[in-house]
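User: What would this chain look like folded?
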Amino acid sequence: MNNQDHAVVVKDLEKHFGSFVAVNRVSFEVNKGEIFGFLGPNGAGKSTTIRMLCGILAPSGGAGTVAGLDIRTQQEKIKSNIGYMSQKFSLYEDLTVEENIDFYSGIYLIPKAKKQARKDWVLQMAGLQEHRHSRTGTLSSGWKQRLSLGCAILHEPPVIFLDEPTSGVDPISRRQFWDLIYELAGKGVTVFVTTHYMDEAEYCDRIGLIYRGELIALGAPATLKTETMQEDVIELMCDRPQDAMGFIEQLSEVKETALFGRGLHIVAEDAGTAIPAIKAVLHENNCAIDRIEQIVPSMEDVFVSLIEAQDRLEQPQKEVHG
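Assistant: Here's the prediction, encoded as structure tokens.
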């Protein structure tokens, strides 16, 4: 199971809650120093997987290692060798910034000689030197997020797990937070991050897409966009996108249409036959086209396409068992 180059190895991992299968035979590996994104809608099994990897939940089946430690038999050892940050930022609101850092230094048994240097590092990394005596509850969510990350990695763990870390944080703080993640990965730390923000998936070295407890795709963002997506994606800019959508959806050459910014993203089996058909139907309905072209699909296009393909696979089974 153990491999020198891998920070996380998972084989046929399962978690059942009664008859409900939350995680269904999931297998993947995460390389050392990699930013690995675990992407999926809420309730897909992301947090359950992370909790098993962090030694918080016992798996129902399968096997795995984190930092070379067994997730079934060495949970306590794993906890001291990883950093874990949940979406609810586990900080004590009544304590000051400095007191929170001191508290976590105690939990992680940081040697006395190193405590001050680690505290200074967290304050500097989070940009909180000026706020070291502020009560944590008064900080903005962006500051809390950085302090929470600092507390989770005080003990310099080789692997950090971030569970929806940017949930409810403004876009600028999200961007700054990702800069910190890049910095850590640059120093050889392995970062395992769960998110449902499609744009964040683009920042990861590789992504695992999880849906209804199953891993439905795994690969680098560019690979998923060029190889996993079977259909073509067409971008259309026109003067009446809402009306255009109605006309285009009637075409047999088109699989689906969605509003995307001020234009439309259209999914078709073949862009070569779909584009002339779209032009013709819009011309007939006096809908002026500014631009129409085949594009590289966005992560969102890929995700929606994979989920719909998965739903189509499951539909016949439901009818058989129904």
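The chain has a mean pLDDT of 90. If you want, I can go into more detail on any region.
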